[in-house]
Amino acid sequence: MDDKTRTELEAAAFRGLVEHLQKRTDVQNIDLMNLAGFCRNCLSKWYRAAADERGLDMTYDDARTVVYGMPYDDWKDKFQHEATDEQKRLYEETKPLHAEISGHK
Fold first, then answer.
1. How far apart are CA 71 and CA 73, in angstroms?
2. Given 63, 82, 89, 97, which residue has the most CB atoms within 10 angstroms?
3. 105 within some domain
């Protein structure tokens, strides 16, 4: 497979993941972090880091709008719930397994 085709497939897979996460507003970021070690914010940070690597001017809020499908504050107001003590405990317990975020600022 050539690089162009690979990149197109990877981009399509990313768009599919983002679309799925936009539909699954019932799934909280802390649950994603606890189960998979990454969340919507991680995807946003990776997206912004990729833009930075290409010299594109993009803020973290711009990247989160791409991933969330709306401004982050709007998503939080509509869909985010307070984390339970158990979710917080599991988050701390699984920290060593969380994604390393390039370009994290």
1. 6
2. 63
3. no
